[in-house]
Design a protein that fits this description.
The chain is mostly helical and about 160 residues long. The protein has 8 helices and no strands.
Length: about 160
């Protein structure tokens, strides 16, 4: 597969638009609105369309540059999933009926991005995100904790 032919996740152009003009996409920060379709593919983009061997071609196809694409994906994750004030499902970017395999997959994608060991300059920017991701994972992976959490959501 050539650099220009890596599949582009459907949500990636929207993430770039959100990054460029966040005021036009207030619903992405509103936990009452569901996340758009394609979060799994966007999270997986690091291994595909945004991988070092493909990112230049992806950027060219989207009228962008590699740094903007990486920044846009992180901006989307932070603003729409982690800082939106939503529940554990939103934090991990999964629907409420997600199975454990999908929850685990999203957890792994996110913890790779925000694990404190990745903070090379010791700025502490990723610690709150890693904490939120770990908390969501610890609740949603356990059937009893998840059932109690879901019951609490239903009452709220």
């Amino acid at each position: 597969m050539s650099a220009a032919s890596a599949p582009i996740p459907g949500l990636l152009p929207g993430a770039v638009d959100f990054y460029r003009a966040p005021h036009r996409f207030a619903q992405l920060r509103d936990p009452a609105h569901p996340l758009p379709a394609g979060v799994t593919e966007l999270l997986a983009a690091g291994a595909q369309a945004l991988a070092p061997e493909h990112i230049a071609g992806t950027a060219t196809r989207l009228g962008s540059n590699p740094q903007e694409l990486q920044d846009a994906v992180l901006f989307f994750i932070r603003q729409a999933m982690l800082e939106a004030g939503g529940d554990h499902y939103r934090t991990l970017g999964v629907p409420r009926d997600a199975d454990t395999a999908l929850i685990r997959q999203h957890y792994h994608y996110l913890i790779r991005l925000f694990h404190p060991d990745r903070d090379q300059q010791d700025e502490g920017w990723d610690t709150p995100y890693a904490t939120a991701v770990n908390e969501a994972w610890n609740v949603l992976r356990n059937p009893q904790k998840r059932a109690a959490y879901d019951a609490g959501l239903a009452q709220a």
